């Protein structure tokens, strides 16, 4: 059981690193990483979370921790809220309204 618990901790670390690498990819592609925060908030709303007292049994970090991490990361890139140009903004608006 000790080996299993140490593996879970390692898995949580990998998940945190994956979140950060995903947000770095977003920034590299000029996408505001605040979308990661919104995704985590949706996940929290849609899924029951493991109680914090037994979070050491989870393979993922607590969603609240992931939200805080994504929020802190995305605040550094608020300039990405601005569209690249009018043409891209128009295309984005069309995509949003075509759902």
Structure description:
Helix content is 66%, strand content 0%. It is elongated, with a radius of gyration of 17 Å. 9% of the residues are buried. The mean pLDDT is 79.
Element pattern in H and E? HHHH
Helix content: 55-70%
Strand content: under 5%
Major sheet details: none
User: How far do the termini sit from each other?
Assistant: 47 Å
Secondary-structure-derived class: mainly alpha
Average pLDDT: 79
C-alpha Rg, in Å? 17 Å
Taking pLDDT < 50 over at least 5 consecutive residues as the criterion, the unreliable ranges are: none
Total number of helices: 4
Outline:
The chain is mostly helical and 99 residues long. 66% of the residues lie in helices and 0% in strands.
Task: Set down the secondary structure blueprint.
Elements: H1 2-28, H2 34-46, H3 63-75, H4 86-97
Helix pairs in contact: 1-3, 2-3
Q: Can you give keywords for this protein?
A:
99 residues; mainly alpha; 0% strand
């Amino acid at each position: 059981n000790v080996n299993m618990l140490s593996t879970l901790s390692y898995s949580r670390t990998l998940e945190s690193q994956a979140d950060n690498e995903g947000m770095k990819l977003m920034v590299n592609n000029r996408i505001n990483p605040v979308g990661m925060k919104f995704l985590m908030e949706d996940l929290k709303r849609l899924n029951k979370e493991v109680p914090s007292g037994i979070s050491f049994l989870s393979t993922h970090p607590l969603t609240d921790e992931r939200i805080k991490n994504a929020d802190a990361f995305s605040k550094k890139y608020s300039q990405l809220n601005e569209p690249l140009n009018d043409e891209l903004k128009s295309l984005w608006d069309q995509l949003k309204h075509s759902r």
